[in-house]
Amino acid sequence: MRPELHRACHRRRAPLPAAALCLALLQGCAATPGAPAPSARIEIQQDVGFTITEERHASGDVRGSYEEAVRLLERGEQERGIAMLQQVVAEAPELSAPLIDLGIAEHRAGNLEAAEEHLVAALALAPDHPIVHNELGIIYRKTGRFDDARQSYQRALAVFPGYHYARRNLAVLCDLYLGDLDCALQNYEAYMTTVPADDEASMWIADLRMRLDQQESP
Questions:
Q1: Any bridge partners for residue 40, and if so which?
Q2: Fewest beta carbons within 10 Å, which of 125, 139, 193, 204?
């Protein structure tokens, strides 16, 4: 079985820990009453990746709890980390970052229904979030919703075409689950332009080309 690739953090400077999202929660006073709530901003950076900044204000307590939840997940304390993220989400439901991390943590714990619920809620706050679309694609694939999975990966790539996690996941989906060999080859080749040292993917491309040649042979 070809494994799916999950999200990675992309920052111009030092990366955040692996369990943390590339999102910055701004600490400070509440937003001006009546003003529209800002959403996550995605900045595409050529040859670097993308940086996602959530321009919402969070209290010191919420921020501290969120950071502690991330540390717990990094240490492998899954249950405590999830419980603390649930508390953060309850206290600050307008923040997408804790919702996304909670969805991913539930996904990794095997709680696919809860994971999907949190990730879909995050999309209401950050509808163009490529990480969320990639994670939802994996959940849809695992639950047999292959067309939905394809759409999710494509939405991630529409925001950031160089997002190689979603690119390879789409290639695997087309290859093994949809039987769309042209789609698989196209996306594997695009993936290899970003990750040229993936020898495993190189073998899959060779296999795909052989199968396509056999289909075209009389």
A1: 54
A2: 193
Q: What global pTM score does this model have?
A: 0.79
Q: Are strands 40-45 and 49-58 parallel, antiparallel or unpaired?
A: antiparallel
Of 127, 131, 76, 124, give the one whose Cα is nearest residue 101: 131
In whole angstroms, how far apart are CA 200 and each of 2, 151, 168, 177? Answer: 9, 25, 11, 18
How far, in Å, CA of 209 to CA of 99, rounded? 41
Tell how strand 49-58 and strand 25-27 pair up.
Answer: parallel
Q: How many CB atoms lie within 10 A of CB 79?
A: 10
Q: CA separation (Å) from 164 to 4, 51, 71, 114?
A: 11, 15, 26, 26
The residues facing 53 across adjacent strands are: 41
* Residues 191, 202: Cα–Cα separation, whole Å: 10
| Sign of the torsion angle spanned by Cα atoms 121, 122, 125, 129 | negative
3 state SS of 162: coil
Which of the 8 DSSP states describes residue 13?
A: S
CA distance 42 to 159: 9
CA angle 92, 9, 191 (to 5 degrees): 130
Which residue ranges form the domains of the chain, and what is each CATH number? 25-216 (1.25.40.10)
Q: What's the pLDDT tens digit per position in 8-55?
A: 433 222 222 222 333 333 333 233 334 334 344 555 444 445 666 666
Q: How far is CA 56 from CA 25, 97, 115, 120, 158, in A?
A: 6, 10, 23, 19, 25
The span from the CA of 116 to the CA of 44, in Å, is: 26
